[in-house]
Design a protein that fits this description.
This protein has helices at residues 3-31, 33-40, 43-69, 71-81, 86-93, 96-103, 109-131, 138-160, 185-189, 191-197, 210-224, 230-249, 255-276, and strands at 83-84, 161-162. The chain has 277 residues and is mainly alpha-helical. The longest helix is centred in the N-terminal third of the chain and has 29 residues, at 3-31.
Length: 277
Amino acid sequence: MTASAAGFVGVAGLVGGAALAAFAVLLPVCVGPDRMRAVLSDRDLLRERAVGIAPYVAGLALVLAVNKGWIRRIEAFSFEYGYRATTAVYAIEGDLVAAIQDAVPRAAVYYFGPMYVVGYVVLVAFPVAAYAFAERLRPLKRLVAAYAVNYAVAIACYAGVVAYGPRNYPTAPGADPGAAPVEPLLLDWFGGVTQLTSQVNAATNVFPSLHAALSVTVFLAAVSTHEEFPRWTYVAGALAGSIVVATVFLGIHWVTDVVAGGVLAAGSVAAANRIVG
């Protein structure tokens, strides 16, 4: 195994281990041991739920396969036919991201860096496990459908729009040479993590921010299930808020990308309600 491959495996293992540790805490706290035992001991119910959620999982898997399997083809298509939006985004925002970085102490990277990677994995994956123990299957169906819609719309956006994030703005054609520099904080402080994220993303896939879109999606879903999982609502809100801020503070996304991600989340949740309904 090469050194780079070993580093990739090491970082992936660290992220996975941290996420599993978070699950071990959140499941009993947010779901409850009694509820978990009741569902896990009922084989007929488990079989019924597995059958019920299967079409939604299959749909999400298909969208993910297209998104990740064709990532380089989508990138090539966007460079050939897509709208080059980086300079337009900068014209709207100017040096807002650089100003945010200047306003936040650099030590905050030790919080926002792990939030962007580990916190995001926990936020997106945990409700899938938690809603499997809900009284009805509808929350899980709705969440998985919303994930699929988010990714499907994002694929179309990434194919149609070429946009570099603020940390890569100087490399974009037509960039303003007088723009305030944005530090690539995730790369500078957590270099191994960027190797992991580069395997599943392209540098021009920033509009909209999927981190923001899926984070807001999970929070909206948590609000809708607050009566059944009240503690999860507060955890999801804290994680989602931290991740949204992290995408900008780390220099990965423009504020415009985050706003677009929020709009995508709201639309995806509405579409998922229709699909499940």
